[in-house]
Design goal:
The chain is an all-alpha fold. It has one domain (about 85-325): MetI-like (MetI-like fold), CATH 1.10.3720. It contains 14 helices and two strands. It has helices spanning about 30-65, 70-75, 85-90, 90-125, 130-145, 145-155, 165-170, 185-210, 215-225, 230-240, 245-260, 260-265, 280-290, 295-325; strands spanning about 65, 80. The chain has a two-stranded antiparallel sheet with strand order 1-2. The longest helix has about 35 residues, at about 90-125. It is globular and about 75 Å long.
Length: about 325
């Protein structure tokens, strides 16, 4: 009877582990290697601190000092606490400028948001060629330098060579023959509003149009099937979908109009009288006319506080409305 012979098993070799990835064989990063990314961004952070934070801190310090031309040269300024702020708050002209600043901001922001929304809705409905032409025109208007645009508006409303007077007299309005636009406070205020709205609408319109392209078309089709008109669709579909973008654009336009300085300074320097003087212009006038840099810095700080307060109140109102609609 044959005897079964058990097969001899092959000798076992030790199991080889897979070779580690080359990146895994690297040594742990040392302290010097961990600080290298911070060293790379240090110049940018330093530049930002020097260009943004330092001037703000310096302005705050000057607003608490007796800082005039003598202190600007010698550098020895005495701290006077809140005296500069009390001086400003007791000045009736300052409160008149504050009132005019809020009026200027409100008129500009309302016109910018309304016109930009209408332009964005129009661009969305145009064909490809028309849309391209309108968007290119908006970009060109937006890219024009502020001083250049202000100079163009000065010539448009020049009393002798301006196109505005020529056009008005051509249609029979002889009272506008050599009409001095910038000698009339209301007219100068209206021209500045027109200039700032013209400069601001392109950015707001392009931003809102970009947001409109993200709204699903199915929502519009469903609303039309339910019998909703254009106004109802905007209130119930478009605006709720784009509320964050509207909030962002509104905030940027508040900041833009609240700190408008270059246009006013180049065109009217706050005149005639104080008809176009808002807080940034008032701060520069106070600092330069009487060499009261301390009062000018205090006026600038009040401008920052008021602008921040407007934005905070608006944000709270928007967030409260969002909570109620949930």
């Amino acid at each position: 009877m044959p005897v079964a012979v058990e097969p001899t098993s092959a000798p076992r070799t030790p199991r080889q582990r897979p070779a580690p990835h080359p990146a895994a064989r690297r040594k742990p990063a040392g302290r010097a290697h961990g600080l290298w990314p911070y060293a790379l961004i240090a110049p940018a952070i330093g530049g930002m601190l020097y260009l943004l934070v330092y001037p703000l801190v310096r302005a705050v310090l000057i607003s608490f000092q007796d800082f005039r031309l003598r202190q600007l040269i010698s550098g020895n300024a005495e701290f006077v606490g809140l005296r500069n702020y009390r001086t400003l708050l007791a000045d009736p002209r300052f409160w008149e400028v504050v009132r005019r600043t809020f009026l200027f901001m409100a008129v500009n922001v309302v016109l910018i948001m309304v016109i930009a929304t209408l332009v964005a809705l129009m661009v969305e409905r145009l064909r490809r060629v028309g849309r391209t032409v309108v968007l290119c025109s908006l970009v060109l208007a937006w890219a024009m330098p502020v001083v250049a645009a202000t100079t163009v508006f000065q010539w448009l409303f020049h009393s002798e060579f301006g196109i505005a007077n020529w056009a008005l007299t051509s249609i029979g309005l002889d009272s506008f023959e050599r009409y001095p636009w910038f000698a009339n406070g209301t007219a100068a205020f209206a021209i500045l509003v027109t200039l700032i709205v013209w400069q601001s609408v392109p950015f707001a319109a392009i931003t809102l149009y970009s947001a409109l392209t993200t709204v699903p078309l199915e929502l519009y089709e469903s609303a039309r099937l339910d019998g909703a008109g254009a106004g109802r669709i905007f209130r119930s579909v478009t605006f709720p979908m784009l509320r964050p973008i509207f909030l962002l654009v509104f905030s940027l336009e508040v900041i833009w109009t609240f700190k408008a300085f270059v246009q006013i300074w180049v065109m009217t320097r706050g005149g005639p009288g104080d008809a176009t003087t808002i807080l940034p212009v008032y701060a520069v006038q106070t600092a330069l006319s009487s060499q009261r840099y301390d009062l000018g810095s205090a006026a600038s700080m009040i401008t920052v506080i008021l602008m921040s307060g407007v934005l905070v109140l608006y944000f709270r109102q928007m967030f409260r409305q969002e909570d109620e609609t949930r």
